TrEMBL record:
Listed Polar residues bias regions: 27-41
Species for this entry: Linderina pennispora
Residue numbers spanned by region Disordered: 26-46
Domain SET, first and last residues per copy: 45-464
GO terms under cellular component: nucleus
Protein name, per record: SET domain-containing protein
PROSITE patterns: SET
Pfam families xref list: SET
Length: 503
């Protein structure tokens, strides 16, 4: 992907256009398309890639036939996207076409507003009536579309309210009155009362950690922790992206004709999802999101590790794990601990984003007949967006570039207009010497071979720049995607580096 994690991690890169219902026939080359091509749930053997598990990397896409440079692997369609606040007026909300003069004249606005309100407080714009119709159709009905826009409208109203409340708080503080918040000192207080009631997360299984996270979130909701904070702009955009995904799910659940996922074979359902998202449905199916790596536990482990490193700089030796004091977490986290400890603070941004969306959702529920927003539903999308979403870059990179080295650039020096979840494309692992290129065409991403690829080889994209040195690349990937890159190039370069250092 040019996975770019949006605000967080992988904002994968460039995507494409829709609505001409094209599917790449398996075995055809770039540009050759076929209406309703034959990738179906019953003949996934025609799907040109297979999903296999790779030790240390999880699932990955492997070529199921020989490809030559320039061949298209498949095309992917987003399930949900968010245009960044800075570019809402310039970017078509459907095909992502950019206009630096903000000439897209069809505004996305909630029904019933005044003319002034509609002109000034729109949630996006379309470059053509066709794009507007495509967007409405993607929600299944005009009513469902209006419901989605109403939620976007409420997010904006809620954000304005929080901004006003925050600036009142600042005025008070400036007059010498303390703001009510008790988070002034985010003390790292674990270890102060080491008892049997604590555990070391390094010793806990992923399932145990997932259950512990549930307890933290139950308390966040019950005790209304981190409520009223205004998350930064990228997280407000994530709130919009989650709103889009959850509205699609609500539409899906009310549509009794929707087709269940019937296979446990990952290649089978990937083939089915790609076929449906490109040919049959104008957005990727909701179930495709549920197959994606959830990332929440990986995120927590990575953040806790960073906290340990921060502390280690005051005495521990980062290169010697034995000197890094373990973090102890309470088995039953209390509201006070979540509010006041360093580990509790790790949940702040997600919680603020949840409360923002929840406030908006509450406003929209009654009029729009939406089900209540559960924190588990929110987290389902929030943590999957991390390390799994693709950046929408402008300009699109053409393929091939005049300079072949440019084919490996991943949005560098481009403007990121927003980000989107392409659930059928997330099985491309990363390599710092990728063999697949992400080419955005409007709303779609076409995955195109950078080199000849033999049947059985793994297919890789890059999750960001491949022009840094191995240390910088690994650090960025660890920070944004929570993994130590084990691609052949990183392994070779780090081995050469250690050999040079006499290690
Ligand atoms: C977008 S997902 C790719 C699909 C993923 N392997 C799965 O099973 O769903 C990104 C995740 O794959 C793994 N990954 C991708 N490329 C890797 C690499 N070069 N080295 C190690 N892990 C990698 C990491 O866990 C990363 O967070």
């Amino acid at each position: 992907m040019s996975i770019i994690l949006s605000a967080n991690a992988l904002t994968a890169v460039p995507p494409g256009k829709l609505s001409d219902a094209r599917v790449i026939a398996p075995g055809t080359s770039s540009g050759q398309t076929a209406q309703g091509a034959s990738v179906t749930n019953d003949d996934s053997e025609n799907f040109p890639v297979r999903i296999h598990h790779v030790p240390g990397r999880g699932r990955g896409f492997f070529a199921d036939r020989d490809f030559t440079r320039g061949d298209e692997v498949f095309q992917a369609m987003p399930l949900a996207c968010a245009i960044s606040e800075d570019w809402v007026g310039n970017t078509c909300a459907w095909c992502f076409k950019f206009d630096d003069r903000r000439k897209h004249h069809l505004k996305v606005s909630a029904p019933g507003g005044t003319k002034h309100h509609q002109a000034c407080h729109y949630k996006g714009a379309f470059c053509s009536e066709q794009c507007q119709e495509n967007a409405i159709a993607s929600h299944g009905s005009r009513h469902a579309w209006q419901r989605y826009v109403a939620v976007l409208d409420s997010i904006e109203a809620e954000a304005q309210r929080l901004k006003a409340t925050a600036s009142k708080g600042m005025t008070k503080a400036a007059k010498g009155k303390k703001p009510k918040s008790c988070e002034a000192s985010l003390v790292f207080s674990e270890g102060k009362s080491l008892t049997d009631d604590v555990f070391n997360p390094d010793d806990a299984s992923d399932d145990q950690l997932a259950q512990w996270i549930m307890l933290v979130w139950d308390s966040i909701i019950e005790d209304r922790i981190f409520i009223g904070g205004l998350p930064d702009s990228p997280y407000r955009e994530i709130a919009r992206l989650i709103a889009g995904a959850l509205c699609h799910r609500s539409n899906k659940r009310s549509n009794s004709n929707s087709k269940p996922v019937c296979s446990s074979d990952p290649t089978m359902w990937a083939a089915d999802m790609v076929r449906r998202s490109v040919a049959a449905e104008p957005v990727a199916p909701w179930e495709s999101l549920e197959h994606m790596q959830p990332n929440e536990v990986n995120w927590l482990r990575s953040e806790l590790y960073s906290l340990q490193l921060t502390r280690s700089s005051e005495g521990g030796d980062v290169s010697n794990p034995a000197t890094i004091a373990p973090i102890h977490l309470p088995l039953v986290p209390t509201a006070a601990q979540i509010r006041l400890t360093g580990w509790g603070a790790l949940f702040r941004v997600a919680a603020e984003t949840f409360w923002l969306l929840n406030g908006a959702w509450q406003q929209a529920i009654e009029a729009q007949q939406l089900p209540a927003l559960e924190h588990a539903d929110f987290r389902d999308v929030y943590y999957r967006e991390m390390a799994n979403s693709f950046g929408i870059w402008d300009p699109n990179d053409p393929f091939p570039s005049e300079n072949p080295a440019d084919d490996q650039r991943d949005g560098e020096e481009h403007e990121m207009l927003g980000f989107a979840i392409y659930p059928t494309a997330v099985y491309f692992n990363h390599s710092c010497a990728p063999n697949v290129f992400k080419a955005r065409e409007g709303r779609q991403i076409r995955f195109v071979c950078l080199h000849d690829i033999r049947q059985g080889e793994e297919m890789f994209i890059s999750y960001g720049s491949v022009f840094e040195d191995v240390g910088e690349r690994r650090e960025r990937l660890q920070q944004h995607y929570f993994f130590v890159c084990t691609c052949d190039r990183c392994v070779a370069e780090s081995t050469a580096y250690l050999a040079q250092d006499g290690c």
